[in-house]
Amino acid sequence: RYKGRLLIDLPEPYVIWFSQKGFPAGELGRLLGIVYEIKVNGLEHLFDKFRPDR
């Protein structure tokens, strides 16, 4: 469903769902945890200049 997307571009409700259910083990889970913190603190704009379409 979200294959090929940057983690930072995942929908916030999806990332929040993961935070409530538990992030997967390993590197992906660690990165999703970081993305969660970025999103709940409204810091997504910091990544705008790194997006491929910019």
Précis, in short:
This protein is mainly α and 54 residues long. It is 44% helix and 0% strand.
What does this entry look like structurally?
The model has no long low-confidence stretch (mean pLDDT 92). It contains 2 helices and no strands. The protein has helices at residues 12-21, 27-40. It has one domain. It starts with 11 loop residues before the first helix and ends in a 14-residue tail after the last helix. α1 (12-21) packs across α2 (27-40). 44% of the residues lie in helices and 0% in strands. With 54 residues, it is mainly α.
Overall tally of domains: 1
Beta content: under 5%
Amino-to-carboxy terminus distance: 23 Å
**Uncertain residue ranges:** none
Structural category: mainly alpha
Shape: globular
Order of helices and strands: HH
Oligomer: single chain
Q: Give the integer mean of the pLDDT values.
A: 92
Main sheet? none
Number of distinct beta strands: 0
What is the number of helices?
2
| Cα-based radius of gyration, to the nearest Å | 11 Å
Helical percentage: 40-55%
